[in-house]
Write a structure and sequence with these properties.
Layout: E1 2-3, E2 10-12, H1 23-31, E3 40-43, H2 50-58, E4 62-66, H3 75-78, E5 87-92, E6 95-100, E7 106-108
Parallel strand pairs: 3-4
Antiparallel strand pairs: 1-2, 4-7, 5-6
Protein name: PiggyBac6
Organism: Dichotomius schiffleri
Domain PiggyBac transposable element-derived protein: 1-105
Length: 115
């Protein structure tokens, strides 16, 4: 489901039943009207992965959200031990992977890697 952030108005949706289409295909279908517009999309850890985020970045859609450790997070960011409020990051081309310690790890493809 894609919602407009100010009003919560539903812009597009598709029911994903976990079979048939891959999750990435469902995400791409729902976001297809918004490619090449550089919109910022916030998603939870069920939908977010490094692979999905890289593909969407290639379609000029920026992603931000929590991510599960088994969704392509590099090992160096999986094993890092941070205290609450601390942060670390790794850069991969135009993508910034940032981990901070609050309650969950986070992944952001919205923030630029250049100054």
């Amino acid at each position: 489901m894609v919602c407009e952030s100010t009003t919560g108005y539903i812009c597009n949706f598709e029911i994903y039943c976990g079979q048939g289409k891959r999750l990435l295909e469902t995400i791409q279908t729902v976001l297809s009207p918004y490619t090449n517009l550089w919109h910022h999309v916030y998603m939870d850890n069920y939908y977010n992965s490094v692979e999905n985020s890289e593909k969407l970045l290639g379609e000029n859609i920026r992603i931000c959200g929590t991510i599960r450790k088994n969704r392509g997070l590099p090992d160096c960011l999986k094993i890092v031990s941070l205290k609450r409020g601390e942060t670390t990051f790794r850069r991969k081309k135009d993508v910034l992977l940032q981990v901070w310690q609050s309650k969950k790890n986070g992944l952001s493809y919205i923030h630029h890697t250049f100054c």
